[in-house]
Write a structure and sequence with these properties.
The protein is an alpha+beta fold. It folds into three domains: 104 residues, 2-Layer Sandwich (Transcription Regulator spoIIAA), CATH 3.30.750.44; 87 residues, Pdz3 Domain (Roll), CATH 2.30.42; 203 residues, 2-enoyl-CoA Hydratase, Chain A, domain 1 (Alpha-Beta Complex). It contains twelve helices and 21 strands. The strands form four sheets. Strands 1, 2, 3, 5, 6, 15, 16, 19 and 20 form a nine-stranded antiparallel beta sheet that branches. A six-stranded mixed beta sheet has the order 12-13-14-17-18-21, with helices on both faces. The longest helix has 20 residues. The chain is globular, with a radius of gyration of 22 Å. The protein starts with 6 loop residues before the first strand and ends with a helix.
Length: 446
């Protein structure tokens, strides 16, 4: 969805996290004023980036001072730039003073790759990366399911210490991605730190095909049909894929659902809203606030596909768009959350094109759940805690996810059965009303 004019994209949550196969982000396309054609000048490109921050930046770090920002522009415009490379370095240095890892510059190659990535056309080893705000280390958000990284056992929160022997100390996500990416069939070796131990992980790069949704019918106790959906990323096809999965599962007569958002790093904001509307008939989904206090509220529109009981599985790798969806379902009492506290990313970034084909992301707002929770750095706590032990994680195979070999899924299935028993004892089958569930009763022991 693009306007007929030059547009920009808005990133929510993990908007600035890089990945060797995809940029993990929440993106909503929004209209913008037409960009005036200007001369192909490195200085003009630098000034465009400066203007974007000056107009729209939401300071969450306390490092932005408008007066100092003006003085910086004056200094930068006095300099001579021999080419785009000089301007790009100036832009990166300028943005670094904000101490905001989510406000960053993208050269033309990176900007084009980001646009391709959000469409679901991926290549690389499949690792979503971010820079830890506190330690400044490169941290794995989550490996993409089925990717070389996933098969090699890379885990959320792993710290990348070296890439092909080169230290990542002080390295940003852009530089890390450049080192990790490469042609399919070639190799790269990562050294990871996990709980104090160093692990060498050799990976072979390959083309990665991402399917946003997997679904099936699981048979629970007493033959209960459970619709299981694993949503792996909120890409351009996620809403359509989820809708198709829900309709298929409804036709198969499922009695309740488990929606698996574990290690889902995010994606398109519009997808998270559209998918929330497939579960919610009414209520606020998410709100965003800019530095000027302008609030945008997304609501359900009365077109839910199903109103049957729902449990959502989350973990520390569930981020951004996953947190928007989880927060909307939890706050509207439409679903129980089972698993572990989510990643905790609640900032909104917009992606702006610059005149030479490069671009930048800039933090412009924060988002809140329907009950006005600011989950940034805090995450969303599940209603039912269910952790994977180290042995569980080590022994759990990809094909075991969403089965009784998966301890967290077993907890989710148990919570869903509690919901179904509650519904069966109070109302006619199939007439579960979102927002009216008695959560304490649903969590009571059978």
């Amino acid at each position: 969805m693009r306007s007929g004019r030059t547009g920009f994209m808005v990133l929510v949550g993990l908007g600035a996290c890089a990945t060797t196969a995809v940029l993990a982000r929440e993106i909503a396309l929004a209209p913008s004023t037409p960009m005036v054609a200007i001369a192909d000048s490195p200085k003009e490109v630098m000034d465009q980036a400066w203007q974007i921050v000056f107009r729209d930046y939401l300071d969450t770090t306390g490092k932005y001072d408008p007066e100092k920002w003006r003085l910086m522009r004056r200094d930068l415009l006095k300099r001579s730039y021999t080419g785009n490379k000089d301007a790009y370095e100036a832009i990166r240095s300028m943005l670094a003073t904000l101490d905001d890892p989510y406000t960053r510059f993208l050269d033309p190659r990176e900007f084009k790759e980001m646009q391709i990535d959000t469409s679901g056309e991926l290549s690389g080893v499949g690792i979503q990366l971010t820079v830890d705000k506190e330690t400044k280390e490169l941290v794995v958000i989550a490996p993409i399911e089925g990717s070389p990284a996933s098969r090699a056992g890379v885990q959320p929160r792993d710290v990348i210490v070296t890439i092909d022997g080169k230290s990542t100390k002080g390295m940003g996500t852009e530089d890390a991605v450049k080192l990790i990416r490469g042609k399919a069939g070639t190799s790269v070796k990562l050294t990871l730190r996990r709980k104090g131990q160093l692990l060498d992980v050799p990976l072979q790069r390959e083309l990665i095909e991402l399917h946003a949704v997997e679904h099936r019918v699981n048979v629970g106790p007493n033959g209960v049909k459970i619709g299981y959906l694993r949503l792996k990323q909120f890409n351009a096809n996620a809403s359509k894929d989820t809708q198709a999965a829900l309709k298929d599962l409804e036709q198969q007569g499922v009695q309740g659902y488990v929606l698996d958002l574990r290690s889902n790093p995010g994606g398109l904001l519009v997808a998270s809203v559209e998918i929330a509307r497939q579960w919610l008939n009414e209520g606020v989904i998410v709100s965003t606030k800019t530095r000027d206090g302008i609030q945008d509220i997304k609501r359900a529109n009365g077109h839910a596909i199903t109103n049957k009981p729902l449990v959502v599985l989350v973990n520390e790798g569930s981020a951004s768009a996953s947190e928007i969806l989880s927060g909307a379902l939890q706050d509207n009492k439409r679903a129980l959350l089972v698993g572990q506290k989510t990643f905790g990313k609640g900032l909104v970034q917009s992606v702006r094109p610059l005149s030479d084909g490069s671009g930048m992301t800039v933090t412009i707002a924060k988002y809140l759940t329907p009950s006005n929770r600011d989950i940034h750095k805090h995450g969303i706590a599940p209603d039912v805690s269910a952790k994977l032990t180290e042995d569980d994680a080590k022994n759990l195979k990809l094909e075991d996810l969403g089965t009784l070999k998966d301890p967290q899924y077993k907890s989710a299935e148990s919570a869903l059965m509690q919901q179904l028993r509650l519904v069966g004892s109070n109302v006619a089958p199939g007439s579960y009303k979102p927002g009216s569930s008695n959560v304490p009763a649903a969590l009571a022991k059978p």
